[in-house]
Write a structure and sequence with these properties.
CATH architecture of the largest domain: 3-Layer(aba) Sandwich
Helix content: 25-40%
Strand order of the largest sheet: 6-7-8-3-9-10
Number of domains: 2
Largest sheet: 6 strands, mixed
Strand content: 25-35%
CATH class of the largest domain: Alpha Beta
Bound molecules: adenosine-5'-triphosphate
Number of strands: 10
Shape: globular
Radius of gyration: 18 Å
Order of helices and strands: EEEHEEEHHHEHEHEEH
CATH superfamily of the largest domain: P-loop containing nucleotide triphosphate hydrolases
């Protein structure tokens, strides 16, 4: 589904070239959920921007469905750390924005938008404006705005990092439920090892600059998974410890 073959990306800076990513080989299968973790500055956002067609690789190729990525595609959606909602639109109006931009049938999508908002716990808030919503609620709206586009590929750049710990867990759990019922091929960048273990089929650990694939860990835990208490709490803790060691001893 997504393929990176020997992908490198450098940036020119005043002090010479910075190599953000070097020789990345990575395959993400259809409907797979891959989490990417690594120290700050190791090239995680650059990786997503390459997959989204917002950046070109300096060398190597990035493909989606076998086709080289040369520009953004309608079926590949990138979700950022901050919600960036339009302040004059309601929650529902913000979710409907990509539908309107892409001139998709409005009536069907309005029903779908309302269902999505309900699914992330925003029943009763469909007609509120962003200033009336908490940061966590705004990010839920941004998640709905991404999902209404029914992306085949969903790229998420630390989408929950601006939220408090409990809201973050709640949203990750909701994302898991949504991925189980309608899976998009997902690449999820996070600084939270626990979040990666909750959500991912595989966790890609990048090394510090230049970012290279240091290790890929399969998370063989049944779903739905939960933070804390579960029948698999010991196995989950084992994965968390292994990833922690990999990051710490880079
Ligand atoms: N447009 C740019 N121009 C120059 N250097 C850049 C540019 N974009 C990224 N870089 C550099 O590339 C490296 C990787 O940046 P990137 O934002 O991908 O890292 P990251 O892993 O997402 O970091 P963080 O976890 O802190 O968000 C950094 O050293 C950064 O300074």
């Amino acid at each position: 589904m997504i393929g990176l073959d020997r992908v490198s990306r450098t940036f020119p800076t005043r002090d010479g070239e910075v190599t953000a990513l070097s020789d990345i080989d990575l395959r993400v299968d259809k409907h797979e959920f891959v989490a990417v973790i690594g120290r700050s500055g190791c090239g995680k956002s650059t990786l997503l921007r390459l997959m989204a067609g917002l950046l070109a690789p300096t060398s190597g190729t990035v493909t989606v469905d076998g086709a080289p990525v040369r520009r953004p595609r309608a079926d590949v959606v990138l979700m950022h750390q901050l919600p960036a909602l339009l302040p004059w639109r309601t929650a529902l109006g913000n979710v409907m924005l990509p539908v309107e931009i892409r001139r998709l049938p409005r009536a069907d999508h309005r029903v779908k938008a309302a269902e999505l908002l309900d699914a992330v716990g925003l029943t009763g808030f469909h007609h509120r404006h962003p200033y009336e919503l908490s940061g966590g609620m705004q990010q839920r709206v941004a998640l709905c705005r991404a999902l209404i586009q029914q992306p085949r590929v969903l790229l998420m750049d630390e989408p929950f990092s601006a939220l408090d710990a409990l809201t973050r867990e709640e949203l990750a759990t909701q994302l898991q439920a949504m991925h189980m019922s309608a899976p998009a091929t997902t690449v999820f960048v996070t600084h939270s090892i626990a979040e990666a273990v909750l959500l991912a089929d595989r966790v890609v650990v990048l090394s510090t600059r230049p970012g290279r694939v240091r290790q890929v860990l399969d998370i063989a835990l049944p779903r739905p998974r939960s933070f804390g208490h579960s029948a698999h709490v010991a196995e989950a803790a084992g994965y968390v410890a292994e990833l922690h060691d990999l990051l710490l001893h880079d």
